[in-house]
Design goal:
37% of the residues lie in helices and 25% in strands. The protein is built from eight helices and nine strands. It has helices spanning 51-58, 76-81, 100-110, 115-128, 144-156, 174-191, 202-208, 242-262, and strands spanning 7-20, 23-36, 40-44, 66-71, 85-88, 162-166, 194-199, 211-216, 221-227. A six-stranded mixed beta sheet has the order 5-6-7-3-8-9, sandwiched between helices. Strands 2-1-4 form a three-stranded antiparallel beta sheet, with helices on one face. It is globular. The two termini are 32 Å apart. The model has no long low-confidence stretch (mean pLDDT 91). The structure holds adenosine-5'-diphosphate and magnesium ion. Magnesium ion binds next to helix 1. It comes from Rhizobium lusitanum. Belongs to the ABC transporter superfamily.
Length: 263
């Protein structure tokens, strides 16, 4: 099968095996997936099922062993050179000696934007994540949730259409996470980004996604792909509705099926 041109990310029979001293680790095995423009796709599964590896292959931080993958119709390497994506890591990964605005400016400096353009983009992205007024603060002066929003602003600063987010809210308490989930959905709608989002949380995956990819380990593979039937307008209360609980149930079943396979 060939990759679909309209897909932002298209994977066919994608495999990645790490060679380790203990022998090969099959991190991704025959992954078939299409992420379309404007999708919000969550990847959910137990530790070690290849979620981070998959994002890293998209980002050209790891090379596939076999199969096909395209990003915006290009090889991951060409997509990286074209700055096709922004990446948000599990920890905010902000430089403590740089202010928030200087942290966001860093990739822009590297890309050679002039000072005026940098300032414009910093102001725009801080506004998108509701951090206007915090540009002169240092990361340690912000709460964990605010730091993570600042790292999202940094990933948005060069306005790539694709945002890769690896458990961005995993270390935050549930109340902060709920709030950030709501904000992220609004941001996604306002910006028309395509988002690939890794999470361990079933409610988070169901609340955010247009598509949920359930994965299972040893070897890392996709066990279910669920197209969400929820409306795009999603107040937090939607999590109590039968429709939401039904999707959550299917995710849980998919996770369980993957688990029993392993035993
Ligand atoms: P997840 O993000 O779903 O927890 P990862 O993609 O990080 O899973 O890892 C998938 C599998 O590959 C795991 O078994 C992990 O130990 C292994 N792995 C990840 N990175 C490397 C690496 N650089 N070298 C060797 N093995 C790795
Ligand atoms: Mg991971």
């Amino acid at each position: 099968m060939t990759s679909s041109a309209s897909s932002v990310v298209s994977a066919r029979n994608l495999c990645l095996t790490y060679d380790t001293n203990d022998g090969p680790v099959h991190a991704l095995s025959n992954v078939d997936l299409d992420v379309r423009k404007g999708d919000f796709v969550s990847f959910i599964g137990p530790s070690g099922c290849g979620k981070t590896t998959f994002l890293r292959v998209i980002a050209d931080l790891e090379r596939k062993s076999s199969g096909d993958i395209t990003v915006n119709g290009m090889s991951p390497e060409d997509a990286r050179k074209a700055r096709a994506y922004g990446y948000v890591f599990q920890a905010a990964a902000l430089y403590p000696w740089r202010t928030i605005e200087k942290n966001i400016a860093l990739p822009l400096e590297i890309m050679g934007y002039d000072k005026a353009e940098q300032a414009k983009r910093i102001a725009q992205t801080l506004e998108l994540v509701n951090l206007s007024g915090f540009e002169k603060k240092f990361p340690w002066q912000l709460s964990g949730g605010m730091q993570q929003r600042a790292s999202i602003a940094r990933a948005l600063a060069f306005d790539a259409d694709l945002l890769l987010m690896d458990e961005p809210f995993g270390a935050l308490d549930e109340i902060v996470r709920d709030h950030l989930n709501e904000q992220l959905l609004k941001l996604w709608k306002r910006t028309n980004k395509t988002i690939c989002f890794v999470t361990h949380s079933i409610p988070e995956a169901v609340y955010l996604s247009t598509k949920i990819v359930v994965m299972s380990p040893r070897p890392g593979r996709v066990t279910d792909i669920i197209e969400s039937t929820l409306p795009t307008e999603r107040p937090l209360g939607i999590r109590e509705t039968p429709e939401f609980l039904e999707i959550a149930h299917r995710v849980r079943e998919g996770l369980r099926a993957g688990h029993s396979y392993e035993e």
